[in-house]
TrEMBL record:
Keywords: Methyltransferase, S-adenosyl-L-methionine, Transferase. The keyword Methyltransferase applies. It comes from Pseudomonas nicosulfuronedens. One of its GO terms (biological process) is methylation. This is O-methyltransferase. InterPro entries: SAM-dependent_MTases_sf, SAM_O-MeTrfase.
Length: 221
């Protein structure tokens, strides 16, 4: 048995995913009367993300079950000890990553979330999962919270906050990504600028689309 597949994490995640399945971000006023082109423009905006995600403060906005399993597998597979996450929400992805750290013998996960109510929910879930000692939640805009006091070598980066900020967050941590570090970007299709950077032939990354909504990249040496 692993931390991910045993109590308290496994039943907690099952409950959180069931709650997320019952919620519908599309019912939020943030998405009212938006067609796909308008939604894309909103998701790509670098000025409206605070307002958008503020309206989604009661929505879990989780990674999929498959992506959660992928996060755990990658973190275990590379023996991750230092992880950075952009976009905590209710802590579903955070639980997967922290479970991997526990099974790797320990480590530190720094995650950033600017919505205070989500920070409180995530912290409670991490305590319930028995992994809060491995996680530091930084409240505020990640452009500030992730601009200082990061590990010298980062093994894994998860991007799952405001899509328009993916290139900016990557730039903040890039110098600390070790060769072979994994970068997982959820819903990266909303940020063509990010995809162009990580997919650049002969560039600093090897990158492929994974499943329907994830870009999986590796930092080259």
């Amino acid at each position: 048995m692993t931390t991910l597949t045993s109590a308290p994490v496994a039943p907690l995640l099952q409950h959180l995913f069931e709650e997320a399945d019952a919620a519908s971000p599309q019912s939020s006023p943030a998405f009212a009367n938006l067609d796909q082109s308008a939604l894309t423009r909103l998701m790509q905006s670098k000025t409206q993300y605070r307002e958008l995600y503020g309206q989604l403060k009661d929505q879990p906005l989780p990674v999929s079950r498959e992506t959660g399993a992928l996060l755990y597998m990658l973190a275990r597979g590379i023996g991750a000890k230092h992880i950075v996450e952009f976009g905590t929400s209710f802590g579903i992805s955070t639980l997967h990553l922290a479970a991997a750290l526990r099974d790797n013998g320990g480590g530190r996960l720094i995650t950033s979330e600017f919505e205070p109510s989500k920070v409180a929910r995530a912290q409670a879930n991490l305590v319930a999962g028995g992994v809060a000692d491995l996680v530091e939640i930084r409240q505020g805009d990640a452009l500030q919270t992730l601009a200082h006091d990061l590990p010298e070598r980062i093994d894994l980066l998860l991007l799952d906050g405001a899509k328009s900020l993916y290139p900016d967050i990557l730039a903040l941590v890039e110098s600390r990504l070790r060769p072979g570090a994994m970068i997982i970007a959820d819903n990266a299709d909303y940020c063509p600028e990010y995809l162009a950077e990580v997919r650049l032939p002969g560039g600093r990354y090897l990158s492929i689309p994974f499943a329907d909504d994830v870009e999986l990249s590796m930092r080259l040496g």
